[in-house]
Amino acid sequence: MADPWNFAGPVAQHNSGPGVVTLVDESTFAISSSAGDISAGGAQGLFVRDTRLLSRFEVLVNGARTEPLAAVTDDPFSATFVSRCLPAPGRADSTLMVFRSRHVGQGMREDLTLRNFSDEATSCTVELFMDADFADLFAVKEGRVRTGLETGEVKRSISPPDGGGPDATSARVTYTYRRGGVSRGVEVRFAGLAGISPDLATFDVIVPARGEWTTCIEVGPVIDGISFSPRYRCGEPIERATPTERLAQWRRQVPQVETDHPGLKEVIARSAEDLGALRIFDPDYPERVVVAAGAPWFMTVFGRDSILTAWMALLVDPDLARGVLQTLARFQGTEVDPRHEEQPGRILHEMRFGDAASLSLGGGSIYYGTADATPLFVMLLGEMRRWGVAREMVDELLPNAARAIEWIEQFGDADGDGYVEYRRETDRGLANQGWKDSWDGIRYADGRVAEAPIALCEVQAYTYGAYLASAHFAFEVGDTATYERFRAKAAELKVAFNRDFWLEEKGWFAVGLDADKKPIDSLTSNIGHCLWTGIVDEDKAHQVVEALVSPAMFTGWGLRTLSSESGGYNPISYHCGSVWPHDTAIVAAGLARYGYDGAAQKLIFALLDAAGAQGGRLPELFSGLDRAELDMPVGYPTSCSPQAWAAASPLLCLRTLLRLDPWIPYGKTWLSPNLPEGIGYLRVEGIPLAGSRVTIEVGSEVPGGVAVEGLPPEIEVIREPRRPSTAV
Fold it and tell me: How far is residue 52's CA from residue 258's CA, in Å, rounded to a whole number?
């Protein structure tokens, strides 16, 4: 059995046809062709909670597949697939079109409509082929459904509600699967049938002249014998379904952006849409909204991804950060369990559902193998305090932050050298436990792959941020001793980091220290994260910036994860030369923090151009090929899209352009917009800050160049950027 946490092989192709469409609502998603068909044998399907419920869902008219014309996705969870039937013998054009309106959410609803543009009625047979294999998401992704996965026996049954036979006009086909104590199923419900079998539903149709015929199909999960209704039900208004109402509410509350830069406005709007689609609502705690990492493969909670996404999305909705922190605190490690890398105080890496017995987050299995989620948890809690939101929630989670710090000091720094290292506890799980967690993601400059234990540069930077947050928490309550302790720990870590990680002869920081405490000397984007948290000494910043925006790192679309001059560089690898939007956005924020606005804007506009070339959406990653070679980004084959921290990256870029850094408990907000020549006017209305909705307007025609509305009067606006020295 392959280890799902550390799979290093090829990934199954999404689709064998001319295109792929992914629809997503929470942990339900559907992958199909551009005609709407889910074909067997690949990675397509309808998935609910990491299990593929439908592995086939294909429509044939008169025994033939239809010709796809368009796939329109108005919402992240719905699409209309338009195709035409093959022309009748002797005719050049078809007069019969097929419209498939699909909505996903805890299952699926599909309205199947045939429209006849002929002056004569048209008779035809519609066949819907279906199947279910209940394959685990990992098995589908890795292409081992047929060879490596013991799926057990799938049983099929037909249940006409009125006691009719196989030719009943209404029927329900049920597929069930059992392995040990785990029982799963899916129900497919039909009306207007001519015939039904376990894998085929048939409709004999007469479509009136200039008229249409329609039917509705429902697909719902069955968990341990309990049937769950899909969120979209046949016969009920679409606009009243839960996903539609939630998205409408989300659209009403997100800040509105007005600017004379059309690309920026388009990308910000798409980012907000994607984040809205990736939210997960736990039935056990419906008030806690979290964000899934990305569709299709990571529709679940990730520690690092969720925290960084929530941080970047504070400009839009602090409730994401609130839900993420509360949920991660709920599952914070309590015991030592090498099988799942759990340790007291540790924040989880990933939650998977698979055989989980419920539709709530509490039913999942958890893997804790990450070095950075725990300090990032404390950092985000501190950032929530700085934004002046959810004060009671932050107070409630301070004990969780204290336990996270204990993990950093005891388990993270197991050898007591002051640095947080990682090494997996068994031969399973992730060999690398930073954000570049592929097996070969951390390399020396000569291309050798570094082996654990490894102290990553950005993990030390996050730890520095966690110590500072802890110091300020203590300062607020007058705990001088604790404040001085964490202030000193942050200062000591900064001194040591700038001594031990700095490569004087190269002019950049090592990506990490190896087991012998020797620098791993390749040039990587990781060092830009160190600028973001302020751990870098200012006298070294200029050289770091020059290295980061050099041709070896900057592609014109964003930053490579690994320098093109380093051994092991591969522009179409996962972590050794590709471009990740969130990575570039964080580095841009770091450049701006140290006063290098021009370099920061260079990266920001590269991302905006990359998004514009990809329909306004930034995928999880794309290749590191240079913009001078090709005039559009080259995609990575299995990149998630939409993906959470990629979607949130433009929001961090927007904050970086505004140079907005609140510190509400201290009665201050740094605000010093520095717009490039490409933006003459920018207005962001409805920023949630200090318990209010704040509007920031920037432009040459604005009095003073900057106007702020809605900020409480006791908050002083400091019209200069916050410098790294402000941190301690």
Answer: 41
**Alpha carbon separation from 395 to 108, 220, 398, 471, 477 (Å, rounded):** 41, 41, 5, 14, 11
Query: Ranked by mean pLDDT, which of 283-287, 314-318, 461-465 comes out on top?
Result: 461-465
DSSP, res 348: P
Cis peptide preceding 296, ω within 30 of 0: yes
Reading the block at residue 547, the tokens are: 């290295």
- 68 phi and psi, to 5 degrees? -70, 140
- Calpha distance 489→485 (Å, rounded): 6
Domains of the chain: residue spans and CATH: 4-242 (2.70.98.40), 254-333+361-666 (1.50.10.10), 668-727 (no CATH)
Angle between helix 303-312 and 318-330 (nearest 10): 160
Q: Compute φ and ψ for 211, nearest 5 degrees.
A: -125, -165
Kindly state the tokens that stand for 381.
């809690």
For the segment 684-703, the average pLDDT, to the nearest whole number, is: 93
In degrees and rounded to multiples of 5, residue 715 shows phi and psi of: -90, 120
Pairing of strands 182-190, 508-509: unpaired
Sign of CA dihedral 483, 488, 494, 500: negative
Reported as a single tens digit per residue, the pLDDT across 263-299 is 899 999 889 888 988 888 877 888 888 888 887 778 8
pLDDT given at position 257:
93
**Residue 453: is the preceding peptide bond cis (ω within 30°)?**
yes
